[in-house]
Each structure stands twice: as C-alpha cells, then as structure tokens.
Amino acid sequence: MMPRYSSLRLPMLAAAALLLAGRARAQGQVTPPASATPGQQPAAASAQAPARQKTDSTANWSLHFQQTVIQQWHNDLSPRYAGDHSLQARENAKLSLTTTLFLGRRLWKGAAVFFNPEVAGGSGLSGATGIGGAPNGETFRIGDPSPQVYLARLYFRQLWALGPDRENDEDDLNQLKGSRPARYLSLTAGKFSIADYFDQNSYSHDPRTQFFNWSLMSAGGWDYPANVRGYTVGGVLEYVTPALALRASVTSMPTDANGPTLDLHYGKAQATTVEVTKPYALRGHPGAVRLLGFRNQAAMGSYALAVRDAGFSAPDVTAARAERRTKYGFIVNAEQEISKEIGVFGRFSYNDGHNETWAFTEIDQSLSVGATSTGARWRRPTDRLGAALVANGLSADHRAYLAAGGSGFILGDGRLDYGLEYIGEVYYSIDFPRYHAALSPDYQIVFNPGYNTSRLPGPVHIAALRVHVEF
C-alpha cells in the first residue's frame, strides 16, 4: 500500500504545466487520441475530438509531450470492519502526476522507432486498493509515491503495403506525419502497452482525457499483461483494411503478481491476445465492434487450493502457486456515433477466475455502458461531457477466497458479504486550446466497494480534478 503523498501540490504543478504549454511553438487544440500507437484511428471520433485535416506532407521526426495531474478525495466512511486492503475510512486527498515525452523517428519506407521516457509519482486513494474498479487510472500500486523516471515505451514498427491506396496521418503521439497504406500488414516489437493496440474505444479508453475509472479505461475482466507501470515486452502482428482489422500478440507477464519485473522466459510465462475489429456505418454514422480473446500463463496461485489448504487460518493464494497456470477470457467491445456531437459505447468482459489476479485488477466479470458529448450545443465545441455506469463481479472461487479472509494485491477486507460492485462516473473536460490544456472535474459513486455489501452503510462519493496538457 502506498503512503500518503503530500509533497506535490496541484496548483503549483497545474500552473507550471499551463506555462510550459503556453510557451510551446505548436499551435492548435488538445485532441486526445484513442491510443498512443499509430494506425489506431477511432471508428467513431466526432464526440471525442474535432476532426483533423489531412495533408500530403511527410515528416521524419515526431516530438510530443503530455502531463496529467489528478487530485482525488472521498467522503468519510463508517465501516463495520476493515482489512489490510480495504478502502480507508478517512484519508487525505491524494495527488498523482504523470509526464511523458513521445519521440518518433522514421527509419526507412514503412519503418519507424518510438521512444517514450516517463515520470510518474503520487498515490491513489488508499494506495489504489479497496475497490475493484479503482477510481484513478493514472495511479500505480507501488510503495514509493515520489516521482520516478522510467522507460515507458521503446519499440520498432514496420508496415508492408497490401495495395496501392493510401491514407494520410497527422503528426501525433507516437505517429509520424505522412501517408500510409490503407491496407497493410505490420509488425511491432519492443516495449509498449498492450492497451495501445487492443480493446480500443473512441469514448472510453484514456484516463488522461476521458473517464478516470480503471474499469472504464480498459475492460475490467481483462487481466492484461503488464508490469506495475502498465507496460510489457513482446510483439504485435496486425492485418488492417478499411473493412476489417485482425491483431494478435505474444507478450510477457510480470514475474510476480503486480510486480515491476517482466518475465522474459516466454516458454513458461506469456500472454496471447487475439482481436478482430469490424467497423461499420449505421445511418451514415460510424461504429465498430471488437471481439477479443486472451490466454495468460504465469506462476499464479489457485484460489480453491489456497482455501482448501488453509484449514482454519486465513488463506494465502501466494502459497498455492504453481510454475504454470493459465487464465482465459474474452471481451465484447462496441461503440457507435449517434450524431456529430454524441457517441455511445459498451463493454462486457469475462475471465474464468480460477487463479489469482496477476497484472491488472481484481475483476472477473465487468459490464460498462456510457455516452459522451461535445459541448457544441452550449457553444463549447471542443469541451466533452461523459457519463457511464459499471457493474463488476467476481468468480465463485475468487469470492470464496476473500470471504475466508484471504487478500489479493487490491482487495482484502478480512471477510466478504458478496455483492456486485456498482460504479457511476460523470466528467466534464473544459478545453483551453490556446494553452493546449484541459481542466476536468469528475465525480464517481461506488456501491459495494470491493464487492462487500456489509462493510459500508452507504456509497462512496469520490470527487476529483484533472489538469491535462498535451502538445
């Protein structure tokens, strides 16, 4: 669990970020992408960001910057009992900070390399524990809240054209300005985030510019391969056409649950991910459906064995680990533009839940739905308003383990009276194009945090403020 983080202050960092953005030479507005990886153009982006103009010029370099500061607070609670990984009844407001440099270089025809150093610091509420759908997607489950510098991404990407048609890409985060094939095969290898390529959604994917909650930035039931910072090492193969996209990857898993070190022995630990994306148009408005399947293999512990072996003691899933155990699951992910101002989305995700959560969060099933709108109707066309609802659940083995007094790296109240975890979130992003910045107040309400119907007499109310600068 992370200690309280009070050495940073939101007003000072926000002022510094706005000043830095104001000095930037690049002009234009903040237009948050659905991904930090090229070739991931949203299927339905009108309610997410203004359309970009296409050009035929080509650039060999790309340089961008982002900084995101989030401060969150929750109301005082009166729990009947608490465990090591419970949401704290009372705590100070928590602050998080991420700063990223995006550098890209074209190498030869169809090939480029991308390099992203990153700084992150701060803490989530209760050290990002106590709620399956944690409320701040910019926080990590690490012990030291002081800002740390690390390598986020370093990868090579090669595209091979499968036809003569071309499309133009604008200079963007990890995207070089110039034309690319409309139909192509590509190979990416190196260190990256698996979420750069899979489970994309134009309206619900990026906690720096969209919804804050973990189970809205990604499918909650996908225990996606990543170290504690959210990155992995491996390769992604893509077949992309205007009518269909197929993606497959083999990537590394951490050596330990929620661990910082990736296991590069792919024979004993790896994640295989496959996804098909079908874009379409409904009455002239774009939409997309994505179907994703995954298989993770690592030295996971078995919840059922941990309970069986514990006897009258609290079970410990780490004592029931084996060298090779697997987790299977799938995601159904859809988005649809309703008008140029409004879009809707939904996700359903599932994993078998027999073995311990290894990388993302303690959610085995999740359903989310929501909508976003631009501010065009109130003469703020680059502002965005979003609202969403989430229901998260656990497998029978997982909830029996927690009910017996077991703990994972996210949850552990000491007992459990099980119920679905319900979350509602509303955010409003106020855009400041002159400063390449956005200010976003956010509100979340959580019922049954950690799936516990008896721990709290009422819901948790979480208020937050986000400052995001990008150019």
Automatic annotation (TrEMBL):
Residue ranges with Low complexity bias: 29-51
Superkingdom per UniProt: Bacteria
Disordered, as annotated region: 29-56
One Pfam short name: OprB
Residues in the signal sequence: 1-26
Keywords: Signal
Regions annotated as coiled coil: none
Family affiliation: Belongs to the OprB family.
UniProt name for this protein: High affinity Mn2+ porin
Native species: Hymenobacter caeli
